[in-house]
C-alpha cells in the first residue's frame, strides 16, 4: 500500500468541496478526475448539479463507498468530512493543500485510514507521486 494506490484509474473517487465556479480548485479537480478515474462523485450540500452531473450533499448519500475521498474544503469542515468518512467505511483520504487539519489527520490515523496531505492529487497524477513535501500515513490494519 502506498500513495500510488490513491492514483489507480480503477478507483471510485469522491471530491468533497466541488464548485460550479471554473476558477475554484473544487471545479478544476472534479473535471480533471472525471477523465482519470473509473467513477467520480461530486459532493457539496449547497450545489445540486455541475455541468449536468448530479452533486451529492454528503458521503452518506452516495450509491457506493468511494475508494478515495479527496477533500477540498477548509480545515474545520474537513474534520466533519473525516467523521462521516469513518462512518461509511472510507479507507483512503487525500487532503488537498489548505484543507489539512491536525485533528482530522489524527482521526484518520486512529481509524486506520490511509491518508495523504501536503501535496495535490491532480499534480501527483500528472507528474508522478510526490518525492518530497507530502506526508503519507499508511493504514494500521
Automatic annotation (TrEMBL):
SUPFAM superfamilies: NAD(P)-binding Rossmann-fold domains (SSF51735). InterPro entries: CoA-bd, NAD(P)-bd_dom_sf. It comes from Candidatus Korarchaeum cryptofilum. It holds the Pfam family CoA_binding_2. This is CoA-binding protein. It comes from the Archaea. Residues 6-99 form the CoA-binding domain. The lineage of its organism: Archaea, Thermoproteota, Candidatus Korarchaeia, Candidatus Korarchaeales, Candidatus Korarchaeaceae.
Amino acid at each position: 500500500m502506498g500513495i500510488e494506490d490513491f492514483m489507480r484509474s480503477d478507483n471510485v473517487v469522491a471530491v468533497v468541496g466541488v464548485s460550479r465556479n471554473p476558477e475554484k480548485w473544487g471545479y478544476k479537480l472534479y473535471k480533471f478526475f472525471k477523465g482519470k478515474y473509473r467513477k467520480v462523485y461530486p459532493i457539496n450540500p449547497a450545489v445540486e448539479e455541475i455541468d449536468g452531473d448530479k452533486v451529492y450533499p454528503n458521503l452518506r448519500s452516495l450509491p457506493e463507498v468511494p475508494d478515495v475521498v479527496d477533500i477540498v474544503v477548509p480545515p474545520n469542515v474537513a474534520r466533519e468530512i473525516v467523521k462521516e468518512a469513518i462512518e461509511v467505511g472510507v479507507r483512503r483520504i487525500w487532503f488537498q493543500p489548505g484543507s489539512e487539519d491536525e485533528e482530522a489527520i489524527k482521526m484518520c490515523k486512529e481509524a486506520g485510514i490511509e491518508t495523504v496531505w501536503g501535496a495535490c492529487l491532480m499534480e501527483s497524477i500528472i507528474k508522478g507521486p510526490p518525492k518530497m513535501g507530502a506526508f503519507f500515513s499508511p493504514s494500521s490494519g
